[in-house]
Amino acid sequence: MAFDETPILDVIEKVSKSVVNINTVRLLHDFYYQVHPIQGMGSGVIFDPKGYVLTNNHVIEGAEKIDVTLTSSEVLRGKRVGACVSDDVAVIKVDAKDLPAAELGNSDELKVGQTVFAIGNPFGLQGAPTVTKGVISAVKRSIRSERGLIENLVQTDASINPGNSGGPLLDVKGRVVAINTAIVPFAQGIGFAIPVNHAKRCANEIITHGKVMRPWLGVSGLTVTPEIASYYGLPVDRGALVTEVWAGSPAEEAGMEKGDIIIGFGEKAVNGVDELVKEVQKRKIGEKARMLLIRDGQRSMADVTLGTTP
What we know:
Layout: H1 6-16, E1 19-29, E2 35-48, E3 52-55, H2 57-60, E4 65-69, E5 75-84, E6 89-94, E7 115-120, E8 130-145, E9 148-156, E10 168-170, E11 176-181, E12 191-195, H3 196-209, E13 215-216, E14 219-223, H4 226-232, E15 240-245, H5 250-253, E16 261-265, E17 268-269, H6 273-281, E18 288-295, E19 298-305, E20 307-308
Antiparallel strand pairs: 1-2, 1-4, 2-3, 3-6, 4-5, 5-6, 7-8, 7-10, 8-9, 9-12, 10-11, 11-12, 13-20, 14-15, 15-16, 16-17, 16-18, 18-19
């Protein structure tokens, strides 16, 4: 019995109407102070019928002009509302109403092996956006790109070409589960995408506050492993080793020092930097927390009031 693809094709056709092409113009100043316009392109997805579009931050970063092309070939001027640089997510607003908005899913429910579709509109051509098919290869990937470390990415074998950056990654029900990114230059045959729950949180903060509001501790660190503990002669083989305390940060005000090892935050044990970040992000700006530290081989406590990420 032949498999009936009609339901899936209908879903893709419906969501494709929410996928847009994004063209940008950046102004480059050369050695002789002459200005040269540099064009760029990418994709995006309408997530609110009032004209809000999700895309990658790197697609519109530094753009002087943003044009958004709908599948109807209508071109609208886009305005950058804000961005979450650490997650490579940005929000654009176009002056239009009753636009076809895609349904946003729940990326926490993603399973390795499930089928997904990557959609992009790199050239704004007639004939609908491009579609590639694949599976979820892995979740919670951390990748270092030329723009820095991007954490908690979804990995897929669905092809994500540079012009498709910012487009949606869909499940078989047509729900957006991630925002595709082609920011990783060495990813041949491997695609990466930002989980939609991260994108939703960024978008909500940007639309509500005009910027991303994240709790901030103000340290850089290294995850302590048995190997690292043995190499550096540390008194514990787990925790987050503080390698830098940012000036003026909540951590500095709490008296934290370089070389401290954080092994507890609030009521939770901290086995590494990832767990520390997760515990901080669970809390609200201005919330107080008690940290359990190892300093000079001795246990100590530090009370911190979380600030806002600069």
